[in-house]
Amino acid sequence: MELLQALVGASNPDPNVRQAAENFLTTASNQNFPLFIHSLTSELINEEREPKIRQLAGIVLKNSIYSKSQERNEVLIKQWVSIDAAARNVIKNDLLRGLSSPIYDARHTAAIVISHIGLIEIPHSLWEELIPSLFKNIETGGEHLKQVTLQTIGYICEEIDPDVMSKYSDNVLRVITDGIRDESPNVKLAGIQALCHTLEFIKGNFEKKEQRDYIMKVIIDNSESQNPLIKKTAFENLVKIASIYYDHILEYMNPIFKTTVEAIQKDPTEDVVLQAIEFWTSLAEEEQNQIDIQPLDKLVIPKALDNLIPILLETLTKQSEHQDGGWGITPAGATCIQYISHLMHMTKLNENDPDRVAELVLPFIKNNITSQEWRLREASCTALGSILEDRKNLGDSLIHLIPVILQLIGDTNDMVKETASWTIGQICDHQIFNVSQLLESILKQLIAYTEDKNVKVATHCCWAIHNICQAFEGGSVGPYPTLQPASQEIAKCLIKAAHRTDIEDDDHKLKTNAYEALNSLISYSNASPELIVEILKVTFMDFEQSFKMEVLNQDDCEAQFNLQSLLCSTFQAIASTLKEHIQPYAKDMLNYLFLVFKNQSVIIYEEALLAIDALVLALESEFEQFFPPFLNILINFLQNVEYGSVTNIAIGIVGDLARSFGKKFSGICETIVPLIISDLTNPKLSMNAKPSAISCLCDIAISVGADFIPYLPTVMPILSQASKTELDDEEFLNELRETIFQAYTGILQGLKGDNRVEELNIYLNDMFNFIQVIHSDGDRSDEVTSSALALIGDLAQSMGEQVKAQLNNPLVKELVNDGIQRSVNYADYARDSVFTNNLK
């Protein structure tokens, strides 16, 4: 097979042909990488080849020197720089000639490849002539060359460390603004796009007022362009500036307000309007981040609010009649209102301050929610749903609006029905405690509408029921202490919704929402055990059917995975709720759960393991009878940290098994403990999982007592080394240190139970050195202090005179006194253990 034939085959719809072509390309790359790269470059710049082939050659070339995976990218970089410098120069010069191609796809692909090579070589001074040659292209080239050269500069500047190319920043800005002033729309567009890519790169220029004024003028002028693409890109620049140069935005707000509002209200191009709205969304998001930094009277959004909200409310009435739930002007406007609403809530100094957003939005809702025009009814529901979060003073208004919205779920217009049901879901999520007197009527309507012929309405109603069930997690909701009286009817409607065949549920959202609502019902409604068992039996039938599903393609495979993940979640909720009463059904549950491990889906593995963990916690020592068939599954996940979060869950299950089995876990230690130690020392295991692995060893040590002694020579040095860890992430460092103290304490307690504490004598210095480390850390958390004091108290109680010298260190007394002053846990225990027992 020739390279040309392989490039043709790589895009062939026949998977066999495509696979053969891909295999050829891989082999060619492995056998002679320099020749392979040179050959691809030759195909890319060959004007006699079809544009599609040239573009494919360029894509393969780009993928041979760059990968989004950092690990893979490092390999590719080494491969590239290993090519002889002279050979690399030939390739680079060919690519630069490729920028002059009359075929856009070819020259644009060459620009992408050049930018990636530049990102490799420029920081190491391997391609010093690149940037000057690009500047020359813009000064002397024609339209096509200027266009693609600006793109190349933009791509490089977006990714490169500005310090590496600081000497070029003035010229970069000059050639870009020259491009923006070019008469050619294509060059002008490339210039404004390049500016967007280089905004962070030209930070030094932007900090200078004269240059900043010029940059902002260029952008704002182009936001009024007659060319929609140029106009859209100008707004993209403003969006980016709102976040990265917020401190400077205020001085330009008058022209920015004018141009964005004019675009939102009058521009016929949707993409332009979307970017104009996005500016205000981004600004609101940035001001949420700035609220603890900037004085409130400096914030932009509160000043613009009275003029801005009516304009955004108007966008809610610009629905497409065939809107499919995708992005558009209406959802963009609603999202912007949500961000502004949240920001304004954050600016309130006390709850009695006027709610300016509600004051502006509620009249719009009340005036239009019963309108004869469907767009206004739907817009009113959207507006209400967009301001519900954070608000505590909408109760009276909602009491009057909810009956109307419930009625709108039965509207003749599908979009009104869908948005009304979504709004009720939002109310149940954010405001249910404020309208709890209407809970019964809301629930009655939601149950009925789960049978609606509109799948989105039924889906939203299941979600709303889920939110109501979750509200009972903390206890009663208004006058209703539990959902138990309604639980039978709720379960019935949700099971029916999950199994509907009269409507198309292509993305399975109805089934998903129905099962998630069932899980919340099981967990929080105080439903009877009998009802939960009935739900379990339905889940058994669904699990059985899931293994019989016809799987012909990837979509079928994902549908099966998603269903089984849902069923695993339901098993978890049931086991967690029924606790020891789950025992008669545990064998059947585990049989299904073990079967899902034959699939190839990490998501299913996670959900299945969480369900098994719930069974471990529910059954405790009785899980022992089910452990043998689970052991190999557990070992697999512990041995392969590449599973990521799945391995983390498996480690957590080991800890729960140890606590559940107690001394009986000793028989498993020889198999399991070395795997946990291996995971803990494996650099591929996520740092976030390290505390979990240490906690696991702690649980095992407490459970097996003296049977943990063979592992002390390995475990204790690991804990000592971990105790010396220094990290910038203060929160994680505190978590790690707390876990290490708990591990020391757990090992000590386990050995004390078997009268073998003397085994720790040789490790006492490490423990007290760690205590000294946290004593000197003024930023330690109360939890770390508490864990240290618990260890000090246990050492005093368990080892007495053996640790008297170490406990007599003044820092111990200082740490104890500090704990008492801060009222942390175990402070009194440590004081009484050390000083009352005369060990000082």
Automatic annotation (TrEMBL):
Q: What biological-process GO terms show up in the record?
A: protein import into nucleus
- Which GO molecular function annotations are given, in alphabetical order? nuclear import signal receptor activity; nuclear localization sequence binding; small GTPase binding
An example of a Pfam family matching this protein is IBN_N
Q: Where is the signal peptide?
A: none
Matches recorded under InterPro entries: ARM-like (IPR011989), ARM-type_fold (IPR016024), Armadillo (IPR000225), IMB1_TNPO1-like_TPR (IPR058584), Importin-beta_N (IPR001494), Importin_beta (IPR040122)
Q: What is this protein called?
A: Importin N-terminal domain-containing protein
Q: Which UniProt keywords apply?
A: Cytoplasm, Nucleus, Protein transport, Repeat, Transport
The Importin N-terminal domain covers which part of the protein?
21-101
Record GO cellular component, one term:
cytoplasm
The record's subcellular location field reads: Cytoplasm; Nucleus envelope
Q: Does the keyword Repeat apply?
A: yes
Q: Which SUPFAM superfamilies match?
A: ARM repeat (SSF48371)
Record bears the keyword Transport: yes
Q: What is the lineage of its organism?
A: Eukaryota, Amoebozoa, Evosea, Eumycetozoa, Dictyostelia
Into which family does the record put it?
Answer: Belongs to the importin beta family. Importin beta-1 subfamily.
